[in-house]
Specification:
single chain, 401 residues, alpha/beta, FAD/NAD(P)-binding domain, D-Amino Acid Oxidase, Chain A, domain 2, eight-stranded mixed beta sheet, five-stranded parallel beta sheet, 35% helix, globular
């Protein structure tokens, strides 16, 4: 079987490695960028995806550059503690949760692809048009080319641009001393105006790369204004949006204002499709199910897609049966995540706290029962496929050799 992968991002590289592990070695990747560089900001890889990367044999390389997130805490605008939960192995998973620089994660995956499939398997500087895709000689083509997927454009030609929810994000990575033990993710404020902070890399000199996101509802949403997806912004613009926050454990003003490169772009997704398939062509990751970053699930879902698709291509009697089985396993859960993230996923805890205690509180559970928050978090874990009891016992997606 010959497989063509359009896009060599996290999803495309994870798929190439998954196919190789499943015994499918005739794989070609086509990437529009002229080179693969370690660019971007921080992302999270949740335990259900870390499990897959562990079984692919790339965990040690990634673990060396990532932070093993130990806890997540939510805070109101006054810095008061609303909710806290353990994460990764501290929460009972057999695998950690990684907070990692996106470029470092992609770099380790790309190196593994070149090592196992050979550098000649990756074709850089190959932007795909409809004619280019039709000319590819392969038994199956998988679009892993992101939210602006050219492959998806062929399958859904009348879809139009991504859908904006009215939220603008400013993102950056800043070198600073660790806060709260150096392994905590923090979300503070309200849904309409919040900041997300977490460390992504230890620099070895007592400092860390700290990722931050300022997310603010700046409009009512659609239609989305024209936007340059690599647009740089003044850090003071981002700080002005959250200067009302008071977090005593981290200097948010310094974190944002001293950042060397701030990126600004809208929060977007697309409506879920009922099928990702047209003949022997299918979609994966953000090309299939772009989602809001609430819940830190985008990269993780792409990695799960890759493992399931590789498994089905290896085990089913033909490509059509494999693509049908892949859709049967992955469309429903990813659609659920997309729709849940539109309601902010577990981050809606922030608004519940703000609505019930707008001036703060003496103790959060005086106004919000602990089991109410716990149910919100647990329901999201089950829906997104990373409930610890289920994940720890689930059968592997690895193909017996």
């Amino acid at each position: 079987m010959k497989v063509a992968i359009i896009g060599s991002g996290i999803g495309g590289c994870a798929l190439a490695l998954s196919l190789h592990a499943a015994g499918i070695h005739d794989v070609e990747l086509y990437e529009s960028a002229a080179e693969v560089r370690e660019l971007g900001v921080g992302i999270n890889v949740l335990p259900h995806a870390v499990r897959e990367l562990t079984e692919l044999g790339v965990a040690d390389a990634i673990d060396a550059v990532a932070i093993r997130t130990a806890e997540l805490s939510y805070h109101n605008r006054f810095g008061q503690h609303v909710w806290q939960e353990p994460r990764g192995m501290d929460a009972g998973y057999r695998w950690p949760q990684w907070s990692v620089h996106r470029g470092m994660l992609l770099g380790r995956l790309y190196d593994a692809v070149c090592d196992r499939l050979g550098e000649s398997a990756v074709h850089l500087g190959r932007s795909m048009t409809a004619g280019d895709l039709e000319a590819i000689d392969a038994d199956v083509v998988i679009g892993c080319d992101g939210v602006h997927s050219a492959v998806r454009g062929l399958l859904a030609p009348d879809e139009g641009p991504p859908l904006w929810n009215g939220v603008t994000m400013w993102r950056g990575v800043t070198v600073m001393a660790p806060y709260l033990g150096g392994r905590r993710m923090v979300i503070a404020g309200e849904l309409a105006r919040r900041v997300v902070i977490y460390p992504v890399h230890d620099l070895g000199d007592g400092t860390q790369l700290i990722n931050w996101v300022v997310a603010v509802r700046t409009d009512d949403g659609r239609p989305m204004p024209h936007h340059d997806w690599s647009a740089e912004a003044d850090p003071n613009e981002a700080w002005a949006e959250v200067s009302h926050l008071s977090l005593g454990f981290v200097d948010v003003e310094r974190l944002i204002s001293s950042c060397e490169l701030v990126l600004k772009y809208p929060m977007v997704d697309r409506n879920p499709l009922t099928t990702w398939r047209a003949g022997r062509v299918t979609l994966l990751g953000d090309a299939a199910h772009p989602m809001y970053p609430n819940g830190s699930n985008g990269a993780s879902q792409a990695i799960l897609d890759a493992r399931v698709l590789a498994q089905q291509l290896a085990l089913q009697p033909d490509v059509g049966a494999a693509l049908d089985a892949y859709e049967a396993q992955r469309i429903a859960p990813t659609t659920a995540v997309v729709l849940s993230n539109r309601t902010a996923g577990p981050e809606r805890i922030l608004d519940i706290a703000a609505e019930r205690a707008p001036g703060g509180f003496a103790h959060v559970h005086d106004v919000i029962p602990e089991d109410e928050f716990a149910e919100i978090v647990h329901s999201y874990q089950q829906m997104a496929g990373f409930d610890p009891a289920i994940l720890n016992e689930r059968a592997s997606y690895s193909v017996p050799r």
